[in-house]
Amino acid sequence: MAYDFIFWDNDGVLVDTEGLYYQASREALARVDFDLTAEQFAAISLASGRSVFELATDDHDVMEALRHWRNLRYSELLGGRDLVLPGVRETLEELAPRLNMAVVTSSRRDHFELIHAGSGLLDFFAFTLCREDYREAKPAPESYLLALQRSGCAPEACLVIEDSLRGMAAAKAAGLACWVIPSSQTQGQDFSAADRVLEQLDGLARLLG
User: Residue 46's domain spans which residues?
Assistant: First the structure.
């Protein structure tokens, strides 16, 4: 199948940020004496898209305070780092002359801008969609439905590249083909519903050729 448009997830696919997000979340929960494990983070945040703060409290005000602290800490961790994953820049350079591309992420816009302040990747993309651009986050399909509308393409002409169960679920619910490249945080999860699972990014451009 030939595709005209690729929708890229950001975290864990283009940039190595999921470990930092886990660190910020873990430090936030430690403030209320809860020890968040990597397995809990992967299952709750990366697989289902729920808040890990539900593990420690059902108090809305406490959750909001933890979320605010986590977001500030995550911003600190992102600052000044080269987070681009191996092979990403070369793959985008190879694909850009023949395919349209966009980023569809659950990241907040301020975090996304910090991540890409020095990445040099954004010129490869026709547009980017961040968390503020839609109401329901992945695994809801709204972000990819919006990307589809923005692209002007038919669903069968678009391909999603994801690394998480919630991202794959969002893509499939939007009627889109989805290829998954598991990250270090999502390896071992059940991606049997994906159209293709790749061990690494290298070779993606050849497969699309």
Answer: 18-78
